[in-house]
Design goal:
There is one protein chain. By secondary structure, the protein is mainly α. Helix content is 67%, strand content 7%. It is built from eight helices and four strands. The strands form two sheets. It has a two-stranded antiparallel sheet. A hairpin with a 2-residue loop joins β3 and β4. The chain starts with 12 loop residues before the first strand and ends in a 15-residue tail after the last helix.
C-alpha cells in the first residue's frame, strides 16, 4: 500500500441524499452550526437582569461592535439590522477554522468505495463553501444598495452615461470590480485556510514533535484574522453600496423600519 503525505483539493463525498452529494466539509458545517446554536441557547438561558462579570464583558463587546457598525454605516437602524449577519459570519468562519486543529478530524474515518476518507474536514478548505458564503454576502450587498438608494440611483454607479466616455469607463470598471468580490471573498478565505492545513500536515509528517505546535498557534491566529477580515469587508462593502455616487453634502442614510 502506498504511504506518505496525501493532500486532496476537493472535499471527499461520503454519500448522497436524494441525489444531493454529502461531503465531509458539508457534514462539518452542520456540526459547526449545531454547536453555535447550542452555545447561543445555553448563553441565552444564563442571562441575568443584573449581569455578572462575564455577562458584563460580553455586553461591552456587543455594544462596541454595534457602535462601530453604527459609525461605519451612519445609521443605528442599519447597524442593528446587519448586526446578526456580520456577527454570524465571524462566528461561523472562526469556529469552522478552529475545527482544522482538533485531533479527531483525521482520526474519525470512514470507508467510501474502498477508500478511507476523513469523516470531518475543515469547512473553509472547500471552495464550494467559501463561494457560497461569498454569494450570500454579494447578494446582501446588492439588495441593500437597491433598497436604500433605489434601483436607478444604485445602478447609475455602474452605468454612467452623463460623464461621457470616461464616466462610462469608470462605471464599467466599478461593475467588474463589484463582480470580482465573489472571487476575492471566496478565494482569499479558501486559500489561507487550505494553505494552513497543508503547512500543518507537512509539519506533522516531517517534524511531528516540535514544529506543529507553533504552526497551529499561528494558524489559529490566521483563522481569527480571516474571519474578522471577511466580516469587516462585508460591512465595508455594505457601506459602499448605500453611499450615493456623489456626496455634495453629508449623506444621511434613510431611516429604514
Amino acid at each position: 500500500m502506498e504511504s506518505g503525505l496525501h493532500i486532496k483539493l476537493a472535499a471527499e463525498q461520503l454519500g448522497s441524499v436524494w441525489g444531493i452529494p454529502i461531503t465531509n466539509t458539508l457534514l462539518t458545517s452542520w456540526v459547526v452550526i449545531a454547536l453555535l446554536i447550542a452555545a447561543g441557547y445555553v448563553i441565552g438561558r444564563r442571562l441575568h437582569v443584573i449581569p455578572n462579570k462575564v455577562q458584563n464583558a460580553f455586553e461591552m463587546l456587543f455594544e462596541f461592535v454595534l457602535n462601530y457598525m453604527e459609525e461605519t454605516l451612519g445609521s443605528r437602524t442599519l447597524a442593528i439590522r446587519f448586526f446578526p449577519l456580520i456577527v454570524t459570519l465571524f462566528l461561523f468562519i472562526f469556529t469552522a477554522n478552529l475545527f482544522e486543529f482538533l485531533p479527531f478530524m483525521e482520526a474519525l474515518r470512514v470507508t467510501v468505495h474502498g477508500e478511507s476518507v476523513p469523516l470531518l474536514r475543515s469547512v473553509n478548505t472547500d471552495l464550494n463553501m467559501t463561494l457560497a458564503l461569498a454569494l450570500i454576502v454579494f447578494l446582501t450587498i446588492e439588495i441593500t444598495g437597491v433598497v436604500v438608494l433605489g434601483f436607478l440611483k444604485y445602478w447609475r454607479k455602474f452605468v454612467n452615461l452623463r460623464g461621457g466616455v470616461l464616466g462610462f469607463a469608470i462605471g464599467l470598471i466599478e461593475f467588474v470590480s463589484n463582480l470580482a468580490r465573489l472571487i476575492s471573498f471566496s478565494f482569499r478565505l479558501f486559500g489561507n485556510i487550505f494553505a494552513g492545513g497543508i503547512l500543518i500536515a507537512v509539519a506533522l509528517a516531517f517534524v511531528p514533535l516540535l514544529l506543529p505546535v507553533p504552526i497551529i498557534l499561528f494558524e489559529t491566529f490566521v483563522g481569527l484574522i480571516q474571519a474578522a477580515i471577511f466580516a469587516l469587508l462585508t460591512l465595508a462593502f455594505i457601506k459602499i453600496a448605500i453611499t450615493p455616487e456623489h456626496q455634495d453634502k453629508k449623506y444621511q442614510v434613510p431611516n429604514i423600519k
